[in-house]
Amino acid sequence: MIKPFSYFVNLPKGQIKAEPGADDANKNELLEFLKNEGLMKQYAEKAATDRVEATSQTLEEMFMVDLPNGIFKADTPEQHEALMANLRSLKDAEILQPLAHKVVQTAQTVAAAPAQTIVHVLSSPQQQLTAQDLLGRDKELEKMEEVKSMYPMGLALTFSEAHKLYLDYSFGKNPENTKTIRDYESRMNKIIEVCGDRYLHEFEPDDVVQVEFAMLETPSPRPRKKTSKNKKSVEDSKPQFLTKQTVSERLRHLKAVYSKMRLKRRYRGDNPFDYWEPLVSSAERKRSGKKSIRSVERIEVIFNGDYYGKFREKAPNMYLLLMTAIVTGMRASSIARLKEEDLMISVGGNPMIDITRDKTVAGIRQVPLPRPLFDAIKDYLKKNKNMGFRGDTADNYSSAISKANCRFKKLFGGETAEQLNAHDMRRSFNEYLKKRGVQLDIRSSTLGHEQREVNVVSYTTGISVDESAEVISVIQEDLLQLMKFQFP
Predict the structure, then answer these.
(1) Would you say residue 2 has pLDDT above 50?
(2) 105-116 tens-digit pLDDT
(3) Can you give the pLDDT at residue 377?
(4) How far apart (Å, rounded) are the C-alpha atoms in residues 180 and 200?
(5) Cα distance from N-terminal residue to C-terminal residue, the chain
(6) Among 1.10.443.10, 3.40.50.920, 3.90.1150.10, 3.30.565.10, what is the CATH number of 293-482?
């Protein structure tokens, strides 16, 4: 049986443990070498703050010297002789007295000290394994190997590192879905703010629940509001918390990251979300989405009022945005980015919008546009260069559209105004096309949904704008008349 070690010397703590005979001779050779190199005093003067314990080898087989604590142990004449020889060697090196007067932790104090993480998984090849417990190295190496076995590439992944790989796997190195990527990055950053940038193997099922509660109970920053009197910014006194649906969406995203890493063989550990139940289920989300869909007839009632002309006059860009959303189903952010060159005539002579900047790859498309609305937007862009919405540093128009929508709602107020937003218009258009009998492939092509029909995906280049116009142009013109479109 191979022993865990042949001898053990810890000069900072004044400890020597060895078995007389060959082990003792090897240890004496070490001490002699350190003495000749002038290193014994240097090591003896170091602060004895490290915790080094014996292995499973029993002390009955060895003599022991612990100078600072005055502990000496020898069970046989041979061990006693070896013990005294070591004391004499320490004396010759002029470190016997300094070590005897050194104040270090006793064995009981060490035992009472809180447990510490001895070995961390290496996050880069340059990092070296550091073990506070030299004699417990085997166990720590075993622990490290167990963790490393979870990562086929050999390096542990943090949330942020795994998420970067997730985006690369999902969108490629030159992604076109910049808006979606920004949304996903924001979700991950919010999670990291709550629980830190952990390694994948460190996150357990209990942590999922804790993070979920933390997100629900942590107030979110609220925008500052202006008072009507002094126009100074004041903080709203009521704290605002994340909704259950928002929390569930963020955690679903982290679950997807784990699933992707396992699928791509970058992580072999368990997915901590395997037994997690979201606060808001997928079925509940769908039911909630259906409730928010406004009928086209209801939208017509909203626009068919005395305030209609006032709105068109005071907020022409928002008016054009909403009307475009009603008859095309375009996302508000895509409409807000429009330039004059994006409006063109198709090969078949149909007015259209060439959408080159959208949230998804499927959203990059060409959409038919009724001639009156086409001319109105073309004229507005020619005079103003853009739609009048300013994106932030990340080229995100959500905030600008939200502010414009709020200004619009203030003109009318009440429950009716709450129904005026571009995303509802998008859903309403899809529902209206379905009621008018428009096939799924045409609806998907027009709205920028991913094509799922195998005949369309695998055997054609997709639906052309002229094919779409042939089906939906009449419907779009009906919608414009229903909304009593007029511009300027």
Answers:
(1) no
(2) 444 443 443 433
(3) 94
(4) 23
(5) 95
(6) 1.10.443.10
